[in-house]
Amino acid sequence: MMRRHLTEQLFQALEDTPAVLINGARQTGKSTLAQLPELKQQGRQYLTFDDPGVLAAAKRDPNGFIAGLTAPVTLDEVQHAPELFPAIKMAIDRKREPGRFLLTGSANVLLLPKLSESLAGRMELLTLWPFSQGEIHGVKEGFVDALFSKRPVWASGENTHLQRDKLFEKILSGGYPLAIARKTAARRKAWFQSYLTTILQHDIRDLTHVADVTAVPRLLSVVATRAGSLLNFADLSRSLGLPQTTLKRYFALLEATFLTQLLRPWSSNLGQRVIQTPKVYLNDTGLLAHLLGLTVERLNVDGTLAGGVLENFVLMELRKQSAWSETQPEFYFWRTASGQEVDIVLEDSSGRLVGIEIKASATLGGSDVRGLQAMANAAGPRWVRGVVLYTGSEVIPFSSNLHGLPVSQLWETHPQ
Q1: d(CA 228, CA 206)
Q2: Looking at residues 135-155, what average pLDDT do you find?
Q3: CATH 3.40.50.300, the chain: domain bounds
Q4: Which of 38, 106, 239, 244 is most enclosed, with most CB atoms within 10 A?
Q5: Does the domain made of 7-127 have the CATH classification 3.40.50.300?
Q6: pLDDT at position 18, please?
Q7: How far, in Å, CA of 45 to CA of 66, rounded?
Q8: Using a CB cutoff of 8 Å and minimum separation of 24, what contacts does 338-345 make?
Q9: Contact predicate 5/326, CB 8 Å
């Protein structure tokens, strides 16, 4: 069994926090993580709300259900029983002890009204994404922290055209544990079809009182064609023939089930007008590839398509790493009204900035770093460095704090 890099953070949280919630999309491995042998040895009671009897009991009498539990306890798929959150709060207020409740959920409680408020200050939230490339390879990545270090040491290695094809194969496979376990593309396709049916027909209906959500699958498919682009509800409304108010409600459901991710624009008093619209991505490039019917051959001949898919891949690898990094930066992008742009911007807690550009080409030139140079000049002393991740093989120093790096540095750069 692959060891999840979030394990250490989970154990640390249980040592000093009354409630810990492992949040993330369905089938990312939350239940497996919550039932590690080390946790079972603590004598944890385990209950899942996928069990109709357990769910019925919790909904019938939330306070009585929680009062009758033997602590410590693990409650799996807690989004099915949102009535429990106030009861858990009351139980913690009566007896506050670390590690009392370990919860898992396949819906983002931060996007569900009032649920997160009830456990503010009492619950630590951990997000479990699909496998990172480091987890798949059995190594712990340190790329995010290296970006903010004074003298990062980049890994050495080659990235031939064959390896470029292998990179695209990694992108198409994604990181869902059960998907990458499938031996062929056809079997992965069957898994993703079943997966989407479960989420779109079951999980999303649990989150909304709207009876007709038949347009949500169509919305997801259209969003997939725009991955890495600005989220334009007016354009989506025209494409789908739905009012923007309905689209926004449906899109919130895709966010709540972790199928989509938004990247907000970064702005400060830099003397420039910046774009305020967020960009949209999918949570996994295997899922993205399934929705778009992608192949390695198609990515090799369509540079524009490959660039957008690669950007989605890089963003999600960075998000995964940030969950266990020391830096834990915030994620943004930068785009001015005049067209200057940086694909991904990371900002640490002290306001320091790192810019990342993603290029699907195997070579780089001066034009590929102009956006990074523009933002560096505007940011001044807050700027740490800029990197361009590309599909070539060499580390290219454009300046002391501006480098071109092979995409594989994402998982080949280890903690330093």
Answers
A1: 28
A2: 93
A3: 7-127
A4: 106
A5: yes
A6: 96
A7: 12
A8: 338/272, 338/273, 340/272, 340/370, 340/371, 340/374, 340/375, 341/371, 342/371, 342/372, 342/375, 342/386, 343/311, 343/314, 344/263, 344/311, 344/314, 344/315, 344/318, 345/266, 345/375
A9: no
